[in-house]
């Protein structure tokens, strides 16, 4: 007769399984935070060296008597800021820069939006026209200004000769000879050069609008004008805001086109704010007043950009 051995498994207490020992923490240079700092360090160094340090130097110059060829002669604040407002060219330059900014911004955004709507659909030839409209943007602004300076020349330029051959004018046309013609000729250059660039930004925004929204509006009987006002423009608002921001900032900092085409003439009628900074620094050899004017321009740009961003945020929340 066999006797079963007693079952000891039920009586014996279970030994809890040992948890694996926690892995050793990696060295600090292998942590995600260290890697993030390493990736951001080159950009931070670049911004510090090429933006923050020059900005601090300009701020110091704006508060000091700082001739170009003599160096820092000590603090003279706020003399530089009062001197720039007392200049005979200061307020005319402000008015002309604002006028130029308004005209260029309105013309560029209207033309760029029209071009984007024309080439929005994928139809035969649309890619060709997109390329053609964008090609002037690949040309440098200084090169484009020199090109138009040759085109506008009343003696050697082809535009004046063409108008004479067509019988539209009897004498050579001076496109840059009067304040109004110089302004409009420069605006035409800028619109020709940058319309394709802004068209591309708006085209990307248009292509992000779902086609289902347009189809639903057409099924409800909405006209083209109603679709444009109620669907296209509201959904295109971020792209329009970006174009507005870039256009206003670039126009307020206009320099190359007027320096090459008009040299600020005729009779200092096309002097921009940045040209005034150039004159103070390199013609009057006064870095102090040039730096003070630069600080004022920077403050105005920051204020305008902040207002535009706030307006865009409020529009999105509404």
UniProtKB/TrEMBL annotation:
Gene3D superfamilies: MetI-like. It comes from the Bacteria. Residues 12-25 have a biased composition (Low complexity). InterPro entries: ABC_transporter_permease, MetI-like, MetI-like_sf. The chain crosses the membrane at residues 37-58, 98-119, 131-152, 182-206, 239-261, 281-304. Its main location: membrane. It is a multi-pass membrane protein. Residues 1-25 are annotated as: Disordered. PROSITE patterns: ABC_TM1. It is found in: Cell membrane. The keyword Transport applies. The keyword Membrane applies. Residues 1-11 have a biased composition (Basic and acidic residues). Residues 94-308 form the ABC transmembrane type-1 domain. Keywords: Cell membrane, Membrane, Transmembrane, Transmembrane helix, Transport. Belongs to the binding-protein-dependent transport system permease family. This is Sugar ABC transporter permease. It comes from Streptomyces coeruleofuscus.
